[in-house]
Amino acid sequence: MTKLSVNINKIATLRNSRGGDFPNVVQVAKDVQRFGAEGVTIHPRPDERHIRYQDAFDLKTAVYTEYNIEGNPIKKFMDMVLEIKPTQVTLVPDADDAITSNAGWDTIKHKDFLIDIITECKRNNIRTSIFVDPVLKQIEGAKATGTDRIELYTEAFAHQFGLGNSESIVPYTECAVLANSLGLGINAGHDLSLDNIKFFKDHIPGLLEVSIGHALISESLYLGIENVVNMYLNKLK
Ligand SMILES: CC(=O)[C@@H](O)[C@H](O)COP(=O)(O)O
Ligand SMILES: NCC(=O)COP(=O)(O)O
Q: Which pathway does UniProt place it in (predicted)?
C-alpha cells in the first residue's frame, strides 16, 4: 500500500497571487484529508513565495494524517521543523533561486552535514527522508547518513515516460531494490501525475509514499472546471 501525501504548495501560490486568504490552505489541508489523502506535504522556500513559514505552524493542528515538511535544512527551516515536530521531514538541497526542486543530494559529499541534521531530527522523534536522484551510489550514501527513508526524485522518469520512454523506470527500480535490501524506506515525488503514477507504483517494490502537488492541483482544475462553469451559469439564469 502506497500512501498519497498531497503537496499544497500550489494552493498557497494561488492564494498569494491576490494577497488575501483564498483559497485557504488550512481548509484545503482539512479537505484533502477528508477526501482520503493520507498525508499533507508542504515545501516552504526561503523567499516564502508560495507556502509560508506561518502556514507551516497554522497547519500543525489541521494535519491529522502524516505531516511532511520538505526543504533545505537551513537554520530557519530547522528551527521551524524542530518546533512543529511534523511526522516527517524531507531534506531537499534547493538553491535559493530554484524555480522548483531540481536535484537530489550528493549523499557522499554531504554525508557529515546530513548525519548532523538527521541526528537532530531523530532526537526529536521526527522521521527523516532525503531527496535523491536514482543513482545506486547515492542510495548507499543515503544509508550511511542514518536516514529512515529516501525520496526518489522522479522528474527524469516523469519527463521520459511522457515521451513514451518507459525504460526510464529502470534506474528507479534498481535503486528501490537496493534501498529495500539496505532497510531504507522509499518515498517518491516530483511531477508524478495521473498519467504516470500507476506505472511508477507497479515498478517500485516497497514504495511507501508519494507526494504529489503540481499535477494533482492542475488535474483538479481540469476535472472540476466544467462543474464550476455550470454552477455559475445556473446562478446567472
Ligand atoms: C521535493 C519536491 O520535488 C517537491 O517538494 C517540489 O519541489 C515541490 O515544490 P514546489 O511547489 O516549490 O515546486
Ligand atoms: N516531494 C514532491 C512533492 O511534494 C510534489 O512535487 P510536485 O508534484 O509538485 O512536482
A: Cofactor biosynthesis; pyridoxine 5'-phosphate biosynthesis; pyridoxine 5'-phosphate from D-erythrose 4-phosphate: step 5/5
**CA–CA distance, 140 with 201 (Å, rounded to integer):** 22
pLDDT tens digit string along 91-111?
999 988 888 888 999 999 999
Ligand 2 contacts CB of residue 209 (under 6 A):
no
In the chain, where do the E strands start and end?
Answer: 3-7, 39-42, 66-71, 88-91, 127-132, 149-153, 185-189, 207-212
Q: What is the mean pLDDT of residues 131-147?
A: 98
Share of the chain above pLDDT 90, in %: 95
- Reported ipTM: the value is 0.94
pLDDT given for residue 97 in this prediction? 82
Provide the annotated active-site residues: 43, 70, 190
Shortest-distance Cα residue to atom 13 of ligand 1: 100
Q: Is 43 in the pocket of ligand 1 (CB under 6 A)?
A: yes
Instruction: Quickly state the pLDDT bin for 117 (edges 50, 70, 90).
Output: very high
Q: Could you tell me the domains of the chain? A: 3-235 (3.20.20.70)
Location of C-alpha cell 472546471? 225
Q: Computed from CA positions of residues 100, 71, 137, 205, in that sequence, does the dihedral angle turn out positive or negative?
A: negative
What residue owns the CA closest to ligand 2's atom 4?
A: 211
Q: What is the pTM of this model?
A: 0.97
Whether 110 has a binding-site annotation, put simply, is no
Does 7 belong to an annotated binding site?
yes
Ligand 1 touching residue 67 (CB < 6 A): no
